[in-house]
């Protein structure tokens, strides 16, 4: 597509330049009004030149945008690599911590058993303390002599 565009542009320039060269007379004449064909070609040349300038500007903008996007892509790729590494580390930690709830439940059950056992022991201690107090308040029983048979 580009070669056709440029060759058309060259043809228009050639025709425009050629038309002006063959019409010149030896004596300077008053400025002539361009023929309709010359005006049309001049208009086409200006239009094509504007399009060319526009395409060049667009090309510069697109190249600049491409450079920005490539830099952003590199930044995002780097961030993605870091996040994948962190994700991998977190998954390892999750696997290691997977047994924690079971261990917690075992320790809780054992703690509850020990609490119940401690409560029983306190009750036993209280009962023995009451019995000891009762024994201390009773008068000593008379001692009997062993019989001699």
Detail the topology: elements first, then pairings.
Blueprint: H1 2-23, H2 36-97, H3 100-137
Outline of the structure:
With 149 residues, this protein is mostly helical.
Description:
By secondary structure, the protein is mostly helical. The chain is 82% helix and 0% strand. The protein is built from three helices and no strands. The chain has helices at 2-23, 36-97, 100-137. Helix 1 packs antiparallel against helix 2. The protein starts with a helix and ends in a 12-residue tail after the last helix. 0% of the residues are buried.
Keywords:
rod-shaped; disordered N terminus; 3 helices; 149 residues; mainly alpha
Question: What is the first-to-last residue Cα distance?
Answer: 142 Å
SS strand fraction = under 5%
- Overall pLDDT confidence: 84
Structural class label: mainly alpha
Coarse morphology: rod-shaped
Please state the oligomeric state of the protein chains shown: single chain
Helix proportion range: over 70%
* Helix-strand string: HHH
